[in-house]
Design goal:
The structure is a homohexamer of 316-residue chains. With 316 residues, chain A is α/β, with parallel strands linked by helices. In chain A, 37% of the residues lie in helices and 21% in strands. Chain A has a single domain, classed as 3-Layer(aba) Sandwich (UDP-N-acetylmuramoyl-L-alanine:D-glutamate ligase). The longest helix of chain A has 16 residues. Chains A, B, C, D, E, F: This is Sugar kinase.
């Protein structure tokens, strides 16, 4: 049974082969993307078993998403293929100057029909961590109920819940997002927000430790606040500090947070302390941004070791 | 003001660069496709002015669709760009042995919100023909109402209505489709069904003239029944016969019926009789199937003349 | 546990994106190909579980081959990833007029080091069929020993052995090939040769039944002799006849025999008689030749049913 | 009628899909490029109407150029399609270290046959600005006469003339270029030179204001001297100062000056003062360099506002 | 020294990666094409040495053309690289139904400035055949003079002249073309016209032998009249008959005549009689049409032997 | 006869069209690469004649490699095409953070069978320089013997030997590599190591001059120690100093050392002193890293002059 189980929607990503406004881009590459499967794949590459609970359309795109995730070694035995609803699709647009966007075609997608009944308690109970994001509750009310039920099951079975807010204002309105995300955060064990997400959820604060302390007061045992290239601020009830990031050439920032989560949970699975785990998380994030796909740049454990040892390609 | 006005949804077409099940196809080319704009573009290429009434999302894909259609010379002054709804998208799948498919992402698209209020009576009144298809009424009830209103306006202003059933069972159920299409057919002047559509609407009959006569009894003045490579059976209240088709190499049949409509209406605009118009329509259809896009293979008047004269490229 | 188990080498296929002599082709598409995994994937698509025993380099190409096959749903739990030897690679060349070729870079590849010790008796014993080809014994003497050992295990556990000669003169010399293939054929239950392979192995005969009878005298219970577009001649000890083929547009013949094997074994797994199984096999072969990859055109059970019922894409 | 009218040649641009010497580049993307239509498209994107006067071959490339420009919303009603002369074509070469080049195939192109008679006085008279460049007079003597005639018409109708020297030594010799450009500059209202062009035309001077003052003495009311990444020096008869530029990642500098012109004229059309207009112009230039095409990266008014407000893509 | 020397223009071919009107084609592949170098390359592939006399621009495209031809083994020691004139470029358009076209950008190209002084008498004198086409005299008067001078040199040195009319009405007017081609035909030893060219030059006749006899009366010793898929009619002063063609799948007919010439001259160089040589020529033509480039599908001697022996790719 | 002769293996390079782990890269571009032909091509571009001694498979890839090198103007008259052994192939993988790799498929390739008997003494004797690398001796013992024999011939004929260690640990073990490379270094006249290679061969030293002096004590007259972006340390028996490098944007470092060697030898051929030659070498290296292929970015003499003069593309 998988060490880490995730739950959420994964879509076909139509990734433009060129940068620029989509009106001018004429070729797209088919890939997949989903915050939760990014994390599952990332943990797998780092040597730990993972499983994914979801729904896909039983159309060609659903088969494609399934085969990629299965091919990456993630357990897909709990994925439901639904003949009546389509697999979600989205388009990326890579522009400069903060104008990049995504265009979703996921309304009433198969995954948006996930139900609490889809959850296999025994399956979840067998894991050490359940990883969730703030995207799923934004998809539909049955998705929200599913997330809540999954947290409930985890708690009853001593499975730790990690949570990445992953705020997406294209999916729901700000007020509702904030309210629900805060209610979920109160129920999780490990919280992995970005600093701008912390701003949005808690209001602007002065220092990373202010956000972390505030979140810890709300419930989570561990908070890993992502600070971009700076690194991350990591805290639990007793201690906290910044763990420095690694520099790399950013091609596409999407997936960096998921790589961070994968690295952090992998570290914890290996018994590392929160600061060591954060260093792995930071390194995984540095890898993640170097390619245009979501998870393709994630490191294997071998890559990570070579990177942390500063190995180079001389004389190969 | 345009000689022919059309009304309907045009989507971004993600066209696979290879044949085969979409799970294996990894690159897509962005194009546009819409039965009604296909007809409008086709008539334009044959030298007559056209206009298109629709709604598009005011997103990058909407801008793209608009610029392509405008670039083809179709009047788009009545197209509404809507900030709240997305432009529809669909994927083609080219397979062998009758297994080809399309995958629509058009539910709640901008065009599905078309309203009778979108129609500018003066604009429609200025045209000689209004061309409609059976796709639009399948999109939503407001779209159906818009089509009915457009027919009403046309009748009140002596604009002839041409209609292509374009049956799409992916969009509505068979019983409802049949009922509404038959009700619309009763109101139109020129009917352009395929023979299998005639089957579906009227039940299986023995001969092309049987379908044509039956349709004419229902209302239309002219029926042009498309028979595939054989050509077409053309009839009005007084006469009818098969007009032979032209052979060409089929790469993608999509758009052939639209080219036929474009050719037929162009012929009528030029004062040709229905059999001459059908010959042009058949020739346009023979061009249309030779490329994978919907309208790119449609002939210009120059192409058509060269083709009908049997001109070849020797000594160029 | 899988219903059918296969054994053999799968390589990265560098597939030219254009036809023509490779000196002029400048772009290649990375795919995978292997006769045995083609069969395993084909059976999977038709609804039955399969497993694959092999060795791959633990390099990027090995990871790729593994993920594709796993993604197709084939059990890869018995595949060994070897750090010391590379994954095999080959290039296809599509030319006209019978000049097409392949260029192998598979000498001393990971798979050529397969050993009898790699075989898990319990795993093989759990299956209903073991499928082998004449390629594996050509790779190395340890591969030949592995094939012989696998047959032995199958026999001891009442697993039926099916065998496709798949003669490759690029891999071994004619005399040795003939001698070893004939020795293996004596040990198998189901033999699936092409008619030219039968020629080469038995000498030229007059009629399909002559070859079939001769082979059956040698050992196999069932012989399915592939006759190209004509179909296949199917026989067991009591009966035999030609089962007609289906016509389709051939783009790349590679994989057709593997699709045939997949269809035939699927038919048998479903309890069909040999002639019914051959009809499925013929249909699968008709699908297989329609795309440039090896297995991408193989039908799903859904495709196969639609095809056999003559379903078309009208009104989609 | 358009607010801004331009006049000049637009060609098909064969844009290499890779950097490097063209002998090694094997794929090209078809686009369009023309300094004047770049400006017209740029102004259109910023919300103002534009028109373009030119000649194109009535060949496939001419149809393509026409449809792109029409699709961008530029009025092309005064473009003449000529059956006897070809549409111009050019190839870009992207190299490092200042070695980039273009290769023109535009001698005796359709546009080089533009005549003063092509000009519709009423059309030009209806505009607020006429934008011209130093490329057109270099194409042929009839093109020079056409430019002179257009200026004459503008002056007689109180249409302000803006002028970008756009020096191209591939098109004419230095001495002749200098003489004619200086004679034209004396007749224009708004001058938009680059600083190296100012050097070439006036001789090396110490400070931006020296060039500006000298030009203003020659005739123009407004001079906007482009200083690259530094920004621009803007002056009229009474005042002058540097307006700082914006930083962005340069992929292809071609089109930056045209974006500047588009931004500057848009600002003036909106009643902004010259320094505000220059800020818009600088921002438009910062967008322009970020993609390999000429105008594809130009901002819409929406983009510009988001950029100037510092909006980012967080939480989309 | 080369056995066969040719003379003429070779251009960069921008070959569309898709069929269809060029207005819609968006990617082009850079290749080279020139009737005379096609022949030179073809003869080289069949095992005989060749040389090419021409002029190229000393720009990137000229370097490219030179390197491809040199890379094919053709002697280019007499090619002049000119800094003042550009290398010619042309675009192919693949359409159906006889509407395919080429678009030349070769006016005042480097090759159009070829001069009689460019010819090295000793070089030409050393060859066994001089191959010329009717394209070169159409390029400019100096090119015509160069062709006439080359023929003169050949005659004085007992070098046989072969000539392919290659009529191109895009390059000159019909009357002038006919007059000059007929004057050249009177001076050549081997004439290789297509049957439609014979029509155009001699007027319509009943039978192939009528054309051949008429040409032989005019001067040539050998006439090889190309009849398309039928094959060719071959005659000298004493005998004549049809040599049957080979069937193959036509993708692009361009280059077929050049392959024919290459095969025919190769046959003669090997001492074969005219009918044997024509069989080789027909086979080379059958290869040539199977790929979109001009010469890439031409056979090597190895290919040709395999083809004529009917070798297939079974068991590779 | 060539001024510089080289000896070694050149392979087909399958170059990924995207960065990232090869498991995810799906398209490859066919190019060629070989350290020695890189040098030969580079010297040719700088205006000096070169020749290459090697073996290639007489397969399509061998023909391709041969035609590219021949097309670049390198004399290939001594290259042996072998029907029994394949042309080597390798794949590049462009990753970030020092994780880039190559994957060789060159074991038992044609070139690995090079023999001392392949060497034509007269050919080598006619050159001014013989350039060798440390790759060839790693390929096989017969390759090592060939290199030793070539040095012997050079010495006997007063041809200077230049040598680039080009250490490749994928090809041999460290101890053997060090031993053989040091033994070869003792026999050469010009040594061109990278500073990390010097480390590996001599042990870590403090300053560039320490390495240079030590090497000069071993035998070579001239040592050019490559220091990356810093430039190079150049020394002979009497003098030595750092020659500063040029900055450029690195896309792919492969080939930089070969460009350096080409520039250095070109400088010496032109009678420049070692520091002037090193400046050319440094400049060539700065060009080389700017494109993904090995030699495509190498400068021509024209490029080099423009670069050294600081020419820019203004006003082209």
């Amino acid at each position: 049974m998988p060490e880490v189980i995730t739950l959420g929607e994964t879509m076909v990503l139509m990734n433009p082969t060129e940068a620029g406004p989509l009106r001018y881009v004429d070729r797209f590459k088919k890939q997949i993307a989903g915050a939760e499967t990014n994390v599952a794949i990332g943990i797998n590459k780092l040597g730990h078993s993972t499983g994914w609970i979801s729904r896909l359309g039983s159309d060609e795109f659903g088969q494609y998403v399934l085969s990629v995730i299965k091919g990456e070694g993630v357990d897909t035995s709990r994925v439901i293929m639904d003949v009546d609803t389509p697999t979600g699709v989205f388009f990326k647009e890579r522009r400069i100057l903060g104008l990049s966007q995504v265009y979703y075609y996921r309304r009433q997608s198969a995954a948006s029909y996930m139900l609490p009944e889809d959850l296999d308690e025994e399956y979840i109970a067998s894991a050490r961590y359940l990883h969730l994001t703030g995207i799923t509750p934004a998809l539909s009310s049955s998705c929200l109920a599913t997330v809540q039920q999954a947290i409930e099951i985890a708690h009853q079975n001593n499975v730790l819940v990690s949570f990445d807010p992953n705020i997406r204002f294209k999916l729901w309105d700000r007020r509702k997002a904030k309210e629900i995300l805060l209610s979920l955060i109160r129920e999780v064990d490990i919280l992995l927000p970005g600093v701008k997400e912390a701003d949005m959820l808690l209001g602007k604060m002065d220092e990373p430790e202010d956000y972390a302390q505030k979140f810890i007061e709300m419930g989570p045992e561990i908070v890993a606040l992502k600070l971009g290239k700076t690194g991350s601020y990591i805290a639990d009830k007793e201690k906290g500090r910044i763990v420095e990031g690694f520099s790399s050439t950013e091609v596409d920032a999407a997936g960096a947070g998921d790589a961070f989560a994968a690295g952090f949970l992998s570290g914890l699975l290996e018994g590392k302390d929160i600061f060591e785990a954060a260093m792995i998380a930071n390194a995984a994030g540095a890898f993640a941004v170097t390619l245009p796909g979501d998870y393709e740049a994630f490191p294997t454990s071998q890559d990570l070791n070579a990177f942390l040892k500063g190995n180079s390609d001389i004389f190969r």
